[in-house]
Design brief:
The protein is α/β, with parallel strands linked by helices and 269 residues long. It is 45% helix and 16% strand. It folds into 2 domains: 125 residues, no CATH class; 137 residues, no CATH class. It has a 5-stranded mixed β-sheet, covered by helices on one side. Strands 4-2-5 form a 3-stranded parallel β-sheet, with helices on one face. Helix 1 packs across helix 4. The longest helix has 23 residues.
């Protein structure tokens, strides 16, 4: 029997660290009041238990999930960890407590509040990653491709295989400005870097020229009779526009004149 206790688990924010929180919860036979990353920022009447990251304990939990519950549940936990939902760490712990109790049946317990919340968060995360597979806009910087995104969830790990498969022979970088993460693909090697700050350099004349070509293409293929801004907003939410070349003008981020386009056409023709 697991009881809720007036204790707060504190860990380093890594997936291994969270698995160690799950391990300690089962050892101590308790469900904490909250799980936080680092030290608490405000006073609390609850005790704070610092959970040290132990790779062996984390491995035991990670192996037990697919073995005693299912591979699908482990995949769900990994994606839930990338989500932006509030109190996701505690939700994962409660979800796994139910999973180890009911086994594979946890996948079908959609009426359960915890399971329902986890499923919705995972859908939001994976759906955002799916959208960004089409909304990422690369720019060329002396032979290297770079793009900036501002997602709500930590979608970089979910985007990695898609872009490395598509740009196998390129060197590129996708920077998640929201979470200060970057997907770096160089010499056919993939790396995900965290806690970094990055700013794109100014585009050169040739890159600006190709951006104008892309905007021209976007406007040309549009059919006036079928213009439906509400439908476009549903399929391409406005929060993505600031990093999409063809939409920046509509947000007033850039201002390009017809004379400038003509000058560039003359330069490169």
């Amino acid at each position: 029997m697991f009881n809720r206790r007036d204790v707060i688990y504190s860990y380093d924010g890594s997936f291994e660290g969270l698995m160690c929180c799950v391990f300690e919860s089962f050892v101590r036979k308790e469900i904490p009041e909250a799980i936080i990353v680092g030290d608490p920022l405000q006073l609390s009447f609850s005790d704070v238990l610092e959970i040290e990251t132990d790779s062996q304990k984390a491995m035991r939990v990670s192996r037990a999930i697919p073995l005693k519950i299912s591979d699908f549940t482990f995949d769900t936990v990994c994606k839930m960890f990338l989500s932006c939902v509030e109190n996701k760490d505690l939700l994962i712990l409660e979800f796994l407590h139910k999973g180890f109790k009911y086994g594979r049946n946890i996948e079908h317990m959609l009426a359960d509040d915890t399971v329902n919340t986890v499923n919705k968060a995972v859908f939001h995360c994976t759906h955002e990653a799916h959208l960004l597979k089409g909304f990422v806009r690369f720019s060329d910087y002396n032979g290297y491709l770079a793009a900036v995104i501002e997602p709500k969830n930590k979608v970089i790990p979910l985007l990695a295989s898609h872009f490395t498969d598509r740009f196998r022979n390129e060197n590129f970088l996708i920077y998640d400005k929201t979470h200060r993460m970057a997907l770096i693909y160089f010499s056919q090697r993939t790396e995900i870097a965290e806690n970094i700050d990055f700013e794109l350099p100014d585009a050169n004349a040739q890159e600006e020229y190709y951006r104008e070509l892309w905007k021209c293409f976007y406007k040309t293929i549009g059919i006036k009779e079928r213009y439906n801004p509400r439908c476009r907003m549903n399929l391409m939410p406005k929060r993505f526009w600031s990093n999409m070349t063809e939409m920046r003008d509509e947000l007033g981020i850039t201002e390009n004149s017809a004379n400038r386009i003509l000058q560039k056409n003359e330069r490169y023709n």
